């Protein structure tokens, strides 16, 4: 007998592993491998470790034995199609790793497959995992399988759904939602606790199902022992077979009855109607078919309400209309399952297509549309558009009426329409956001989403959007190219939270903001269906109950308020009472429980992540800032013109009508959800601030900068910043320091503006010295009217650029650097005059551009401005207001020496061409005549005319100079300033300035001579009156001229700014004071007048004889004052003058009255004759005569004309009479003479207009005025001799020689 070979204990233990459960096999195998690789092959420690492993293997073997013994007895209901084909299915599962089982509802595939697997021996070494799309299905299927296997739920058969786990140590079959299996993948990448996985209802192609199918395909090669069974309705099962490399496919029929399909399009050639009417017609048609409930599919709640209203109005007998949609309360949803009598019409959304089986349905009305969740690539939001359903969905709908007996399905569209539709509905992965899938795949290290073996690969753009959202949330690092490393620490934590990534991001931010508890409450609420119910028939009552929790600024806070209320009520109430309270207050108890469960789960996960809940309630702003972290692409800025918001990527959305913010929308909002139905709606919204958004989206915002500019106050380069998030402007034009954004440009602008241009407030010594030196050279440029003296800005820039470091970009940076540098190099930045002046600027003397102008005793400051086109371009003389009356134009016509040559050249160029020919070349001629001229000895034009006559032998008439062609900068600008050197007025016409500022000048003069001016004088009581008053003011001698002023019934002493005004005022004032102190002879003269004289004097322009005689008295007084030496300036002289006037006034006045009588007699005669002639004479002639008469006889003419000239008025009036006699004989000749007189008169008036209004005309100008009257006699009344020879030429020459 041979002895068996000796084996090691390690080998013996390894040989026992294949009989263990998969998890134990893997776990213990690794320990044995560790022992095998250990350095010490012997020893007590090794023996101890082996013993421990052996003990665990013993325990694991007992576990397998116990599980094998727990396999219940298996039998199959004979009536189920799957049971009838059990052997075929069993063989397929035994022989293949993947099997596809297709069968209609009712075939028994869901309940019988786990039993077939148990019969094959599966479930002993690992669980039989069986997934369902919904929690309700997982629980009910588990109950059904356990019942058929005659075991308690939780023993051989268990289930696991969110918040509930009924799986025991010896459970063989585990029903669960596909989400549970997905979550387990994170903990068990190889799924070693399963030896079989059944993916049920795979035809629904949810996101979870597609991900599981892809993951299993990738896993199967590494788990050859794993069996996978895919069950599906008979909707494209071949696709699953192809996905798993041609896996065998078994099709099992269901238990259904035939269904008659009728096509009744809404609109045909014969009938036009809407969908509601078409449904009503279909219901009427089905009513004739016999009893049975009707299921009508509709796309939304509004369509259900409209259709229900229409059906109710039809008053159908024994018919009940019942709505069915997801937002209904659980009680209202359960109505469709409750027994009833009569007929029931169920109006349902596509929730009744696969999710719920409505009992008793014999008839179906299918409009062929549904709201299908679809991700919009353009707006990046989930839409719910109404779309035509696929053929597969249409067949599912029609199949709903073939469960109990033969049924009828009326389709409200044509058969051609049906056949043209896509065969299958797009799987969810092709029409939903992929962020959650991508996050989980990244956490699992599954690599590129695009390379993952999905049944149908998603659109790469949707993948990109999912990645973009995760980058928005900070879960993925956009800069990381290695896909396995791009998940950030935050993203890894995010992947562990059992909620949508957006909600998870809120939770993590809530922890950071100290508001974790509140944010988890809100996140849990957002992950479930709204617990607030709004029954169709009690919407107002529900709204009133829910209004207690409303926060006007935030729907999120409304949820928080509801939570706090529920917590408080639950503490104070029993379970049953709390349920009743929820029902009474329109709150769904099951959803409230789910809310609490999700919150509890989040709290548990948060604890594992090391997060701590806040004990103190957080303020709402912190809560919203935390929520904002997950909703950055769902913020909106209100359009001020429309009731809508600008959202990310130019999306336009409105706040949902059910929101508390709907009636008074804030400027900025965030929405928990953007859903497109009839339009894009923002559901569950809250007010936010743009600075919150900018802070939270720092990694996403785009910043652009415009208008970088130097700001003196900031001592820095500033720019306008525009901040946008996905195209939404968060900041439109905020000033920011540009130095940190673009240091190079900022440094350039700092040097140019602060240092080169000097636009900086600083006390650095070098800066002040440089500015002063620049000002000196710039002033020289202004004076010389050249731009080539000072070096250009680029030279100055290079000077600073070579010396200042690259990191100096602002005043603050400069101060810091210069503080250290100036101790070693104090003159580093100081200019030298030689570096500022160009070489071409030699030869410019300061004497040619003096700082002041001397006129008599006055020294007036000069300034220079080289800015062509401006009012003060050229030389400006500054005249203090106090000495304005002392400054004359004399000498200023010569200009300063530096501009004199240019002025003379300009004058020569202004000459007419015939004269200009004699002075070319102009620069040479100008230089020659200047050498002959002596500045200031005569007016410039006089001296220039004389020099030209001597130099080139040409006589230049005065009117040949075209002074308007001389450039303005060659004309002196006069600037009048006050004592603070502030400009009061300026211009190039000194006389006009004096006239404009006369009131202020008078005030100044009066202020400088207080006590000199007097009022209310009726006699000479002022002692001697000085002809000139001088007083020092502002470094000048202020000169004024006192004089008596006629103020009617009294006399005053006033100051005048010119001697001419003084003379005029003094004469009138002396006259008034003399007449006030001399007895008037008016009454005496009136008593001696004859009746004829009185009649003649009555026709006067004064308005009465008294006024006329006063005028005669004034005229007589003027004659007497002139006869006795003029106005008196002392009390003694006035007394003498007064005595003489008293004695001589009566006879002289009598003489004057006689002359006036002649004047008025002739005037009256001419006026009467003029009325007769005017009807037939030329208008110009008549107008000229009237103008002449108005200038001869007018109120006050006696004094104005003067007693000595009064007799001449008689001659002139007789001349007018003679003209009126001859005018009808030869009106053409009169018109010719009128034109000649008009030309002379216009010349006289132009010269007279140049006389200031306050100054009397000169003697020569007065002589010209009367010479024009003599000229009229020479033309119109040649029989009346003129007083002296006269002609129009003589008058024009006299005007030219006048010195006004």
TrEMBL record:
<dbReference type="InterPro" id="IPR001650">
    <property type="entry name" value="Helicase_C-like"/>
</dbReference>
<dbReference type="InterPro" id="IPR003593">
    <property type="entry name" value="AAA+_ATPase"/>
</dbReference>
<dbReference type="InterPro" id="IPR024590">
    <property type="entry name" value="HrpA_C"/>
</dbReference>
<dbReference type="Pfam" id="PF00271">
    <property type="entry name" value="Helicase_C"/>
</dbReference>
<dbReference type="InterPro" id="IPR048333">
    <property type="entry name" value="HA2_WH"/>
</dbReference>
<dbReference type="Pfam" id="PF11898">
    <property type="entry name" value="DUF3418"/>
</dbReference>
<protein>
    <recommendedName>
        <fullName>RNA helicase</fullName>
        <ecNumber>3.6.4.13</ecNumber>
    </recommendedName>
</protein>
<dbReference type="Pfam" id="PF04408">
    <property type="entry name" value="WHD_HA2"/>
</dbReference>
<keyword id="KW-0547">Nucleotide-binding</keyword>
<dbReference type="InterPro" id="IPR010222">
    <property type="entry name" value="RNA_helicase_HrpA"/>
</dbReference>
<dbReference type="GO" id="GO:0016887">
    <property type="term" value="F:ATP hydrolysis activity"/>
</dbReference>
<dbReference type="InterPro" id="IPR014001">
    <property type="entry name" value="Helicase_ATP-bd"/>
</dbReference>
<dbReference type="Pfam" id="PF21010">
    <property type="entry name" value="HA2_C"/>
</dbReference>
<dbReference type="Pfam" id="PF00270">
    <property type="entry name" value="DEAD"/>
</dbReference>
<comment type="similarity">
    <text>Belongs to the DEAD box helicase family. DEAH subfamily.</text>
</comment>
<keyword id="KW-0378">Hydrolase</keyword>
<dbReference type="GO" id="GO:0003724">
    <property type="term" value="F:RNA helicase activity"/>
</dbReference>
<dbReference type="InterPro" id="IPR011545">
    <property type="entry name" value="DEAD/DEAH_box_helicase_dom"/>
</dbReference>
<dbReference type="InterPro" id="IPR027417">
    <property type="entry name" value="P-loop_NTPase"/>
</dbReference>
<dbReference type="InterPro" id="IPR011709">
    <property type="entry name" value="DEAD-box_helicase_OB_fold"/>
</dbReference>
<keyword id="KW-0347">Helicase</keyword>
<dbReference type="Pfam" id="PF07717">
    <property type="entry name" value="OB_NTP_bind"/>
</dbReference>
<dbReference type="GO" id="GO:0003723">
    <property type="term" value="F:RNA binding"/>
</dbReference>
<dbReference type="InterPro" id="IPR007502">
    <property type="entry name" value="Helicase-assoc_dom"/>
</dbReference>
<dbReference type="GO" id="GO:0005524">
    <property type="term" value="F:ATP binding"/>
</dbReference>
<keyword id="KW-0067">ATP-binding</keyword>
């Amino acid at each position: 007998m041979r002895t068996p070979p000796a084996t090691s204990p390690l080998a013996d233990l390894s040989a026992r592993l294949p009989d263990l459960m998969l998890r134990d096999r893997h776990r213990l195998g690794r320990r044995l491998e560790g022992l095998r690789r250990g350095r010490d092959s012997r020893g007590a420690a090794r023996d101890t470790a082996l013993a421990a492993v052996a003990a665990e293997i013993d325990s694991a073997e007992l576990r397998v034995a116990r599980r094998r013994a727990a396999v219940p007895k298996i039998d199959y209901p004979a009536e189920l199609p799957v049971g009838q084909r059990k052997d075929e299915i069993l063989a397929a599962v035994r022989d293949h790793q993947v099997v596809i089982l297709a069968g209609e509802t009712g075939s028994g595939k869901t309940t019988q497959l786990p039993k077939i697997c148990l019969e094959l021996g599966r479930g002993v070494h690992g669980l039989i995992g069986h997934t369902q799309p919904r929690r309700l299905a997982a629980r009910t299927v588990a109950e059904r399988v356990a019942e058929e296997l005659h075991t308690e739920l939780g023993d051989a058969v268990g289930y696991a759904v969110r918040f509930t786990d009924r799986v025991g140590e010896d459970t063989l079959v585990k029903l669960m939602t596909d989400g549970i299996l997905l979550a387990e993948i994170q903990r068990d990448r190889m799924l070693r606790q399963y030896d079989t996985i059944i993916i049920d209802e795979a035809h629904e192609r949810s996101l979870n199902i597609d991900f599981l199918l892809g993951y299993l395909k990738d896993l199967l090669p590494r788990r050859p022992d794993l069996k996978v069974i895919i069950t599906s309705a008979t909707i494209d099962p071949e696709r699953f077979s192809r996905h798993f490399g041609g896996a065998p496919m078994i099709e099992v029929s269901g238990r259904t009855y035939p269904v008659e399909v009728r096509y009744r399009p809404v609109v045909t050639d014969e009938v036009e109607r809407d969908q509601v009417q078409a449904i009503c017609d279909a219901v009427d048609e089905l009513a004739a078919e016999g009893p049975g409930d009707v299921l009508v599919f509709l796309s939304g709640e509004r369509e259900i309400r409209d259709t229900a209203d229409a059906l109710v109005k039809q008053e159908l007998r024994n018919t009940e209309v019942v709505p069915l949609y997801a937002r209904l309360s659980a009680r209202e949803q359960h109505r469709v399952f409750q027994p009833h009598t009569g007929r029931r019409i169920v109006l349902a959304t596509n929730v009744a297509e696969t999710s719920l089986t409505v009992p008793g349905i014999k008839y179906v009305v299918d409009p062929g549309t549904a709201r299908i969740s679809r991700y919009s690539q353009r707006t990046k939001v989930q839409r719910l558009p109404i779309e035509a359903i696929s053929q597969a969905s249409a067949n599912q709908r029609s199949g709903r009426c073939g469960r109990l007996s033969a049924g009828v399905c009326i389709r409200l569209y044509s058969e051609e329409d049906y056949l043209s539709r896509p065969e299958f509905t797009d799987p969810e992965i092709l029409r939903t956001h992929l962020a959650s899938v991508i996050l989980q795949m990244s956490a699992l290290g599954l690599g590129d989403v695009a390379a993952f073996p999905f049944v149908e690969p998603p659109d790469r753009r949707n993948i990109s959007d999912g990645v973009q959202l995760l980058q928005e949330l900070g879960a993925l690092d956009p800069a990381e190219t290695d896909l396995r490393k791009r998940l950030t620490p935050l993203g890894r934590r995010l992947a562990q939270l059992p909620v949508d990534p957006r909600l998870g991001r809120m939770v993590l931010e809530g922890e950071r903001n100290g508001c974790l508890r509140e944010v988890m409450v809100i996140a849990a609420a957002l992950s479930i269906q709204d617990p607030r119910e709004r029954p169709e028939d009690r919407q107002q009552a529900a709204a009133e109950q829910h209004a207690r929790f409303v926060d006007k600024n935030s729907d999120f806070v409304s949820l928080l308020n509801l939570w706090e209320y529920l917590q408080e009520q639950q503490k104070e109430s029993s379970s049953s009472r709390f349920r009743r309270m929820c029902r009474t207050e329109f709150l769904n108890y099951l959803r409230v429980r789910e809310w609490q469960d999700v919150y509890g789960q989040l709290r548990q996960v948060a604890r594992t992540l090391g997060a701590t809940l806040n004990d103190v309630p957080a303020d709402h702003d912190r809560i919203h800032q935390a929520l904002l972290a997950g909703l950055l692409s769902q913020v909106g800025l209100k359009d001020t013109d429309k009731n809508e918001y600008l959202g990310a990527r130019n999306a336009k959305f409105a706040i949902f009508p059910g929101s508390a913010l709907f009636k008074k929308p804030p400027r900025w909002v965030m929405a928990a959800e953007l859903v497109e139905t009839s339009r894009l709606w923002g559901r569950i919204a809250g007010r936010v601030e743009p600075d919150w958004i900018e802070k939270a989206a720092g990694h996403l915002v785009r910043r652009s900068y415009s208008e970088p500019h130097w700001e003196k106050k900031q001592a820095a380069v500033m720019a306008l910043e525009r901040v946008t998030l996905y195209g939404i402007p968060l900041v439109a034009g905020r000033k920011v320091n540009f130095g940190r954004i673009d240091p190079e440009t900022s440094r350039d602008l700092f040097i140019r503006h602060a240092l080169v241009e000097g636009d900086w407030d600083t006390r650095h010594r070098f800066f002040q010295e440089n500015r002063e030196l620049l000002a000196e050279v710039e002033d020289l440029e202004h004076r010389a009217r050249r731009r080539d003296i000072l070096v250009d800005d680029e030279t100055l820039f290079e000077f600073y650029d070579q010396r200042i470091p690259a990191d100096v970009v602002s005043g603050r940076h400069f101060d810091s650097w210069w503080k250290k540098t100036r101790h070693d190099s104090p003159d580093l930045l100081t200019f030298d005059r030689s570096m500022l002046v160009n070489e071409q600027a030699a030869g410019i003397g300061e004497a040619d551009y003096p700082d002041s102008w001397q006129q008599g005793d006055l020294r007036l400051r000069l300034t220079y401005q080289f800015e062509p086109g401006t009012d003060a371009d050229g030389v400006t003389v500054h005249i203090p207001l106090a000495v304005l009356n002392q400054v004359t134009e004399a000498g200023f016509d010569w200009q300063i020496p530096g501009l004199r040559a240019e002025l003379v050249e300009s004058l020569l160029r202004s000459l007419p061409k015939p004269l200009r020919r004699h002075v070319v070349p102009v620069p040479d001629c100008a230089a020659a005549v200047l050498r002959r001229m002596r500045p200031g000895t005569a007016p410039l034009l006089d001296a220039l005319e004389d020099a030209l006559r001597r130099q080139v032998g040409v006589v230049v008439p005065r009117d040949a100079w075209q002074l308007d062609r001389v450039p303005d900068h060659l004309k002196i600008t006069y600037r009048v300033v006050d004592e603070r050197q502030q400009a009061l007025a300026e211009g190039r016409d000194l006389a006009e300035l004096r006239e404009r500022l006369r009131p202020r000048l008078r005030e100044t003069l009066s202020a400088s001579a207080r006590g000199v001016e007097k009022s209310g004088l009726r006699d000479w009581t002022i002692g001697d009156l000085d002809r000139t008053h001088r007083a020092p003011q502002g470094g000048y001698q202020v000169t004024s001229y006192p004089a008596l002023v006629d103020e009617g019934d009294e006399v005053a002493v006033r100051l005048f700014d010119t001697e001419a005004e003084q003379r005029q005022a003094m004469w009138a004032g002396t006259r008034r004071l003399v007449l006030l102190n001399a007895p008037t002879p008016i009454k005496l003269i009136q008593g001696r007048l004859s009746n004829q004289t009185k009649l003649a004097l009555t026709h006067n322009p004064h308005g009465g004889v008294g006024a006329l005689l006063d005028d005669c008295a004034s005229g007589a007084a003027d004659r007497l004052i002139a006869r006795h030496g003029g106005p008196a300036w002392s009390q003694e002289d006035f007394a003498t003058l007064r005595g003489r006037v008293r004695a001589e006034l009566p006879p002289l006045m009598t003489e004057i009255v006689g002359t006036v009588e002649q004047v008025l007699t002739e005037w009256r005669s001419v006026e009467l004759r003029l009325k007769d002639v005017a009807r037939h004479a030329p208008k110009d002639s008549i107008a000229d005569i009237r103008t002449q008469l108005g200038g001869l006889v007018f109120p006050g003419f006696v004094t104005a004309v003067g007693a000595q000239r009064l007799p001449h008025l008689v001659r002139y009036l007789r001349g007018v009479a003679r003209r009126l006699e001859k005018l009808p004989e030869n009106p053409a000749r009169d018109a010719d003479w009128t034109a000649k007189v008009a030309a002379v008169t216009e010349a006289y008036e132009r010269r007279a207009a140049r006389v200031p209004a306050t100054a009397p005309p000169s003697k020569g100008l007065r002589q010209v005025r009367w010479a024009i009257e003599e000229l009229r006699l020479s033309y119109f009344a040649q029989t009346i001799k003129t007083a002296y020879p006269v002609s129009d030429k003589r008058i024009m020459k006299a005007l030219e020689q006048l010195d006004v």
